Amino acid sequence: MKRNTTTLAALTLASALALTACGGTGAEDNGAGSESTPATSSAAATSTDTATPSATATGSAEEISAEHNDADVMFAQMMLPHHEQAVQMSEMLLAKDDIPTEVADFAQQVIDAQGPEIERMNAMLAAWDAEPMGDMEGMEGMDHGGMSGMMSEEDLAALEEAQGTEAARLYLEQMTAHHEGAVEMAQDQVDNGQNPQAVALAEQVITAQEAEIAEMEQMLGNL
């Protein structure tokens, strides 16, 4: 009888210890879990709060330094209508039928590349309190034989009238001269500009358009 009582007491004590241990572990786990959630939320909130001003700081208006000289302003003012004409020529070509696929794809590539650069240069002029040239003002007389490579009204009329493969050929010839003018203007900016973003854009124009000149020469050979 005494042996049974001792055994029962031992079993009761073991059960009590087991329940206490389980209860303690559960409480600690719950406590840790309830504390980790606010900590994680707090960290996420802190991360979000930190990222938002950073993203704002990299907005287009703040990316452009106020530091600039006359060469920077002239570059943006002259390259804007230059790019706009390249987009106009490309849209003119894409409106035609029977244009070789590789030339049509290239024209779309010009639009896609120069559209964002137009926005960038407009933002630069706004940051410097300078006005863009209206209606290609100041660009008169700069045909494809001039420094800028701008097409004359006669050049654009010829492209408008051309069709099919002949239109593709004329487009590539005109755009090659157009790109050569852009590279020359961009090199002037690299040599004489002061604003770091404008100089970087000019370098981008040189790299991209020199590669496109080589691409157009190859396409002309394929026509």
TrEMBL record:
Residues 31-63 have a biased composition (Low complexity). The keyword Glycoprotein does not apply. Residues 72-220 form the DUF305 domain. Pfam families: DUF305. InterPro entries: DUF305_CopM-like, Ferritin-like. Keywords: Signal. Residues 1-27 form the signal peptide. It comes from the Bacteria. PROSITE patterns: PROKAR_LIPOPROTEIN (PS51257). Gene3D superfamilies: 1.20.1260.10. Residues 27-63 are annotated as: Disordered. PANTHER family: SLL0788 PROTEIN (PTHR36933:SF1). This is Uncharacterized protein (DUF305 family). It comes from Citricoccus muralis. The lineage of its organism: Bacteria, Bacillati, Actinomycetota, Actinomycetes, Micrococcales.
